[in-house]
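During the first year of the project, the team set up a workflow for recording each protein of interest as an amino acid sequence followed immediately by a discrete structure-token representation. This format lets reviewers and collaborators read both layers of information side by side without switching files. As required by the reporting guidelines, we include two representative entries from the current panel. The first entry is reproduced here exactly as it appears in our internal archive.
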Amino acid sequence: MRWRDVLAIVSVLLALAGCAPSATNAGTGTSSRGPVRAAFSNLGVIWTQGGGAFIALAPDFRPQGVVPSGVNDVAWVAGDAWIASPLSGVVRKVTGRPDSVRAGRVVLLSATRVYREDGSAVTYSGEPTGGLIGTPSAVVTGGDGFDYALQGGRVLRVGSAAVVVDASARGPFLAATSAGAVSTLFPTVFGASGSYRIANGRLERLDAAGVVRAGVPHEPGVAGLVAEFVVTIGESGRLRVFRYDLSEVDR
């Protein structure tokens, strides 16, 4: 099957998934520049691994190839999936109506901004917007609608000017919260009653007090929430789907 045919199929599937009541609110995830980059929403997950981009839509979570190479980051923006191709300098929407932005040397994407190597940013309509001075190591859009960036061991809130909100970051990851974002030692996603993280060779469920309540073996990777599921992408590219109690969903 040609890649353009796959993109057409994905666009149809996404339109159907968008009709589901569970797909009205964006999920949350963790950001860091690593071997796997993933973005999660209640519609599904898009990720890049080894330069290729892949998408899997809820509730079936069947992985589909989007493009075979040249991608360094992905994002969900207003219900559509986007990919960044730094060599071509283009950020492209790969679901819904076709769209693209020529942005230059892109390093990271959030739900609101495209970040270049020098920290400057544009919107997904190509307009210049508030960014950073220097390359961020991680960015994420918080539950308050602001972007947060990890840079030089500090967490900054991005706006017309960047504001330091944490001068001593705990770790190399950023996790979105309902009030903004926090740095974490491990890839972490926060839910309504606790959090999930990939640490110590396991996917772990923590309660609101930060106590580990359950865990299952898991390779290094990233985790996010998609509707009523915890979805993970391992560094090998393997996708796994769990219920909130960490019982794995057969697919």
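The second entry, processed by the same pipeline in the following quarter, appears below.
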Amino acid sequence: MLIVRGALPQDDARVGELLVEAFVETYARKMPEVVVDENRKRDLRDVATKRGEAAVLVAELDGAVVGPVAVFKLGSPQSQAWLPNAVDLRHLAVDPRCHGRGISKALLDRAEALAREEWKVSAICLHVRRGAVGVARLYLSRGYQRDPAGDLAKPTVFLEGYALRF
């Protein structure tokens, strides 16, 4: 049975390892030119800090945590949302052994409902690494729209902005 719930402190290690595994394995397979460095891995593993700034949700399949997503709260200093009254969605990942089971959909359904119905925000902003076509396609299929106003050019990566407006 698949459930989505708020992450607990005892989930931190598993969520951190899932994020590292999903990002490293996915990039190695689909974008081999991308290297996930130790600083990025450390950031991905720092789930306790994320829980202080965001609603970290986890998908649990038959009692095992198989995927997280984080929604950074309105006004969080860690939020990268560029639209007014918007939250920032990040760190969607699914255990590679569980792909194709609707886990991303369940996590996004809950994250979007939280933002829209409970927090009553106007939009969700997120970033997708340029070239991550499959990831972009997932969000576009859910109604997110490409928004160049949210693009971020960092020294090692170009992130394209997407937004879901309510």
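For the second entry, the following points were noted during internal review. The mean pLDDT is 93. The longest strand covers residues 64-72. Both points are flagged for discussion at the upcoming steering committee meeting.
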